């Protein structure tokens, strides 16, 4: 008899768990709030002339966060100036093409782009190429886009 009560109790618990799982949204499927890319403006000087705007990709942003920590925090922080400017809000002020060109070809940007030249005059150091490929640069862009939505 005890076995039957335990068995029924166990079955109810399973049913309750299944019901709770159905009612509880899966947090991994939820997307972080992000804003759209800046559509108009200076595209910069370099290899990126156009950018395909895609929905937010949290995995790409996570990869970008890791790369940002390793490659960018030497000179940049998201919310504080360092050797270079704070990057919070950059995706609201600059086109994705401009940002990608600055990441991939800073030497060309600092030599020919008026916005990059003006920005460099406000800081002590000049940005150098970090040896990133286009996909890695896009992941950092996606990370910055996520940060700008906070």
From TrEMBL:
Amino acid composition bias (Polar residues), ranges on this chain: 1-12
UniProt feature, compositional bias: Basic and acidic residues: 13-32
Entry keyword annotation includes Iron: yes
Annotated region described as Disordered, given as residue ranges: 1-32
Keyword hit for DNA damage: no
Xref: Gene3D superfamilies: Cytochrome c-like domain (1.10.760.10)
Record PROSITE patterns: CYTC
Pfam families noted in UniProt: Cytochrom_C
InterPro entries per the UniProt record, alphabetical: Cyt_c-like_dom, Cyt_c-like_dom_sf
Name the record gives this protein: Cytochrome C
UniProt lineage: Bacteria, Pseudomonadati, Bacteroidota, Sphingobacteriia, Sphingobacteriales
